[in-house]
Amino acid sequence: MASDPVPPAAAPAAAAASEEPENTLTAPEGDAAVESLVNLNVILPDGREPIQIMVSTQEQVHEIRQSIIDLPAAFQYTCFHLEYNGERINDFTSLGEVADIGSDPKIHLVEDPYTEKEARIHLVRIRELIGAAGNRSDVSQGVMPGLSLFETVAHEAQLSSDESAEIPVKDYNFQEEPSLTSFVPNEVDPAPKTLKAITLSPWNPPPPHLKQRGHLLYLIVTTNEGEQYQVTAHVSGFYVNKSSNAKFDPFPRPAPKGQSSHSLLKLIELISPSFSESFAKLQDYNNQRDPLATFQITNSIPASPWVVPPPTSSLCTHLPDPTRSQETYLLNGVDNTDTLRDWNEEFQSAKELPRGNVTDRVFRERLMSKLFADYNDAASKGAVMVARGEIAPLNPTETKDAQIFVYNNIFFSFGADGVGTFTSEGGDEAARVATGKDVAGVKLVNQLDIEGLFTPATAVVDYMGKRIVGQSIVPGIFKQREPGENQIDYGAVDGKDVVAADERFAGGFAQLSSALKVKKHPVWDKEGKRFDLEASVETKGLMGTDGRKYILDLYRITPLDITWLEEGEEYPHRMTVLRPELVDTVYRHELRTYALDAAKKVEEKQKAVEEKQQKKKSEEDSDESSDEDSDESSEEDSDEESDEDEESKTEKKVKKKETQPAQPDLSAFSWSLNPDAFSGQVPQTDAEKAEFAADEKAVRDAGAFLREKVIPGLLHDLSESDISFPMDGQSLSRLLHKRGINMRYLGKVAELSTDNKLKCLQDLCIQDMVARSFKHIAGSFLRQVPIPAIPACTSHLLNCLLGEGYNPKPVAEIDPSLRTLYTDADWSFEELTPATLRASIEEQVLKRFRYKLDQDWASKIRLPQLLREVSLKMGIQILARDYAFTADPSAPAPAPVATQPAQSSTNGQANGESKKKKKKGRESPPPAVAAPVNVHTFSPDDIVDLVPTIKDSAPRSALAEEALEAGRISLSSDQKKLGQELLLESLSLHEQIYGILHPEVARVYNTLSMLYYHLDDKEAAVDLARKAIIVAERTVGVDSSETLLNYLNLSLFLHQLGDSKSALVYSKHALKMWKVIYGPGHPDSITTINNGAVMLQNLKAYHDSRLWFEESLRLCESVFGKNSVNSATLLFQLAQALALDQDSKGAVNRMREAYNVFLAELGPEDRNTKEAETWLEQLTQNAVSIAKHAKDAEARRLRAGIRFNAKASPAQAAPATPQGRTSQTSQMDSRSIDELIKFIEGGDTNAKSSKKRPGRGNPKRRGQATR
Questions:
Q1: Staple 344 to which of 381, 472, 1117, 1237, CB 3.0 to 4.6 Å?
Q2: Where are the beta strands (DSSP E) in 329-474?
Q3: Tens-place pLDDT, residues 694-719
Q4: What pLDDT score does 829 carry?
Q5: Cα-Cα-Cα-Cα dihedral sign, residues 734, 738, 742, 745
């Protein structure tokens, strides 16, 4: 691939190179704007060798500055400017705008005088650089946010890749429940210390007379040698002063201890002899780790793990740092104003930026992405402070739910009906749902990016049972209008009594309605006056005092699911709207139906025309035949004329056919829904009533389509393995939402999942319904509990849910001092028992999902998996230890019967060895559990923290996705070169816009790794897969379903590269994750286990391979049935594995079973059937030969007077004659063992084809793994 673009492995490191295709696609006008690469020589002030960096002329100078200070040679610089030809370069221009810039320019780095803010920034930077900053404790992100396990797994893979190392899955136990401690990374050695301490001096701030002389800050530096230095930060730099802890003298100290430097880093180097060596060791220490695993996450919310190490672990030890509490001042300034931002103005100004070309769009989308990340972080921190009662409300006299707050220019309110807005819709329940729908609506509008229509930045934060909404403050929203003026300019005012319809909003709302398939429709105010609105009457338009048109309250952008409300018992609220994805699906269905009908009409019309022409032609032919007796000359004339006529007729026919539309005309098609159907509107005239009735019918039809087509269609696709099964509640909700199915239909999905193939889906639905119901119940208790009692309340709730088997009568462990301190607190949670909680969950499931749980649901549900679901939904971080869910600590957690199979008769005979191993596993000592003094499964100490869960309104990058789609299209049309360039372009755009550590970047890494794998560039695929894992672990979770699939991809790629041992390590980790996420026995794990068996065959570990094939077959039979083609395919492979493991009888039995299934299901002429028949003949002949040899050997031993057990199994006798296969007559298989292995591992593609699982969610197709 020498002529191909650079592999994506290099793309993140070389932003300039990856940007190049960007502007060659759509370059701005003029040659000056065309992008080019420049080799920049940066001359440093200390006279060292110039730094050389490759940059793009389109890069901003401030971006180049950042690139410079990230280089080791320029670590010490933070306060400087760049000069070219003696002229200062503006930081906010692009490099290409600098006059006379060449292709190899020399730019001087010139140190600037410090300001107080620059001195603070410099101190923060140096503290982080020399490892003195430590870990910041952030209450909004919990313990160890952004955790990655990849380095731990990669280290194990590195050890196992040694040729002398045994296979990493030796004696693997498929049913063993993994320890939660395995989801905590290995403890590492502490980093080398470069200084003992660097802190702000108690002499701060400088007195006024010294401030006038350029004094900015005073510091104390304590070196590793134990020397303490008082340092002055001056406008000119940093110097050692004459102060002590008792005496203030901030002027320079004389030599020899007096030192000064523009950089604090250089000053420390001068005063501490050991600093240079320890700093070099620190850099080496940091370089041992993967940079992606250590970079700070700035462009997204890091994933907080639900299992965390104990506080005593070296991974999260709380170390002393005097400056930690001073960082707020260092980062924000004395008045905390440095980071105070006008969020609304920033968002709306960014939205108004130009988007005429690719460069403009990249800059705009990158700024928007960073803004959303910063806003979400600020909103989550503010919401946590609101929930903890640390911010004073603006209206303290109102009820608690009605109180509002402003912090950091963000407006906070509770997701409850504090002022009675949703009284008719369901009160607090409706208000809570409305906030979630609103943030989803804002996200949708942001994604549509309609010019001239603005939304406030919105985030919904769930924390300790409270739902808090954070919004940027819209200018004018609190303004008191003049008498007669409405507070809202478009939509409902004061409920629905008054309606406003300012025409200035009609254009933007019309574009939104068109995109959402919502029609312009009439609404009526309380006096019966009609208004024609483009969106739901609940959706409001507000003209801000900044002149911008804002759209608010987007919780009703689609119609009500009226059928759900009308049937069954009363639902907790009326906010049951249809999902936008469903509206799109129905629209496409209606369009397809219309197109088919139109095409049919066109076809019938064309057929009628052709029949008419055919009839006319036949009449003309009969006329010609009657004139055959005319004279010769006239005949020739008429022939010429008829030839000309025929030619003209043919031309006319061709033209007529060309003018007729090949495709039906779809311009007349129109379909949209009325979002205000069934919402209390009262039409006045008969015509209006008829129109409204038609609108209501269309909405009913959409609801019926969901029930009758969409849900059964999803179940059919899952049953036929057209798509991957979800693994947990998160992937389940993602799957349902993608199909337009609301989560309230979980009960319906569970009811319809009666097929054995869908048992997995039914179990997941029940688990998710229970977890969601528990979250509602727990939230009602947590909201009323004082903050210090949260761990006791949470642990008691978990004991009632999960610990009944260990202690059927749990008691809440509340600190008695809290009872006396919080006399008015609600302690009702301690009255909860497992029985009352179970009854409440059953009631909630019936009310919210209309599903009646079985009597014994609590004994069937998987407890470790339910613990994970509940922890993720509520933001609970629990201690990493093995929890006892039953009184017998050695007993495993309850699991469905399907996951506890009998291991006997796996090959038509007893597998004594596997039984022995299983028994041995049972006899092994139980895993370490809680100390015996623990009377409950969970104690308050096990609840380490609660972290907020956030729903944001950040849109995805349209530009980056366009490039990715263009690359896919190019590859599918065999334009490999262009396709790869576009893929690199898409990767570059994703990294530029989102930053590297972002969930969307993890997804594009995964997508591109698959594409490069199919392009046969496996090294690039492996590199991208590694990055996808680390980024996914840190941004979506170490045990998320996305991370699991990324591990499986990497395993597949490494196997194809020939590193099967490392591949097995990653597969083993993925299976361990699977057991924690779902438990053993997930349908998609069939393919993974099968792939592992193939890898073991590749390593010639035939017995282990056979065990993995047996497990894969057992799972397949439990899901698809014994007589399915899937099971037959695995029987075929298992038979080959048994032959390699020298179990000839078992091989024959299994191949016969496979042949019988293929014959019954596919028929005798199918290729799979014929191949199975051929193999059956060869294996049978081989088995007969082996049996004959064994019999002859036994006879010889008997003649010699030696007696052995006559009941020895063929598997025991087989090793005596391993060459039997190659020593037979011409009728036997004459291939060598190596040839047979090669055939088994690579030549059974036709048998495997029936096992392929299409769909990107499960890339572990056997066809790939064994190619």
A1: 472
A2: 404-407, 410-414, 458-463, 466-472
A3: 999 999 999 999 999 999 999 999 99
A4: 93
A5: negative
Dihedral angle sign, alpha carbons of residues 963, 964, 969, 972:
positive
Which residues sit opposite 233 in a β-bridge?
217, 238
Which residues of 1075-1230 form beta strands (DSSP E)? Answer: none
Strand pairing report for 498-501 and 490-493: antiparallel
For tokens 């995805």, the residue is 956
Give pLDDT, residue 429.
92
**How far is residue 284's CA from residue 131's CA, in Å, rounded to a whole number?**
13
DSSP line for 775-792: HHHHHHHHTTS-GGGHHH
Query: What phi, psi does 84 have (nearest 5°)?
Result: -135, 125
* pLDDT classification of 1073: cutoffs 50, 70, 90: very high
Of 266, 12, 211, nearest in space to 991 by CA: 12
Residue type, 680: G
84: helix, strand or coil: strand
CA–CA gap between residue 1265 and residue 1092 (Å, rounded): 9
Question: Taking the CB of residue 784, how many other CB atoms lie within 10 A of it?
Answer: 15
Query: What is the 3-state secondary structure of 585-605?
Result: HHHHHHHHHHHHHHHHHHHHH
Of residues 974 and 1211, the one with the higher pLDDT is 974
Average pLDDT in the 707-734 region?
93
Main-chain phi, psi angles of 1025, to 5 degrees: -65, -40
Query: Tokens representing 1079?
Result: 């438990």
1252, 1261 contact by CB (below 8 A): yes
Neighbours of 309 (CB within 10 A): 23
Pair 1049, 1025: CB distance under 8 Å: yes
Distance of CA 577 to the CA centre of its chain: 25
For 409, residues 6+ apart whose C-beta sits below 8 A from its C-beta are 340, 341, 342, 343, 344, 472, 473
Q: Give the residue carrying structure tokens 């701030």.
A: 205
pLDDT in tens, 367-411: 999 999 999 999 999 999 999 999 999 999 999 999 999 999 999
Arithmetic mean of pLDDT, 752-757:
89
Q: Which pTM value belongs to this model? A: 0.84
Q: Round to whole Å and give the CA distance between 79 and 112.
A: 6
Neighbours of 899 (CB within 10 A): 18
For the chain, the residue count is 1267
* C-alpha span between 1155 and 1162 (Å, rounded): 10
- Distance (Å, rounded) from C-alpha 295 to C-alpha 996? 9
1155-1166 burial string, b = 16+ CB within 10 Å, else e? bbbbbebbeeeb
CA atoms of 474 and 841, how far apart (whole Å): 41
What's the maximum distance between 2 C-alpha atoms anywhere in the chain? Answer: 137
Residue 92 or residue 1238, greater confidence: 92
> What's the CA gap between 502 and 171, in Å, rounded?
73
Torsion, Cα of 326, 327, 331, 334 (10° steps): -10
- Strands (E) across 901-987 are located at 943-946, 949-952
Element (H, E) at 216: strand 215-223
φ, ψ at 215 (rounded to 5°):
-75, 135
The count of other CB atoms within 10 Å of the CB of residue 1215 is 8
Q: Which helix (H) or strand (E) holds 1020?
A: helix 1018-1035
* Residue that the structure tokens 């933070």 belong to: 78
> What span, in angstroms and rounded, lies between the C-alpha atoms of 1119 and 1085?
11
- Amino acid at the residue 1060: S
Tokens of 444: 């949708």
- Indicate the burial class of 529 (C-beta count within 10 angstroms; 0-12, 13-18, 19 or more): exposed
List the structure tokens of 899: 């996951």
Residue 888's pLDDT is: 67
**Are the C-beta atoms of 217 and 119 separated by less than 8 Å?**
yes
Q: Which among 120, 35, 42 has a CA at the least distance from the CA of 81?
A: 42
Sheet of 228-234, strand order: 195-200, 215-223, 228-234, 237-240, 260-261
What's the pLDDT score for residue 979? 86
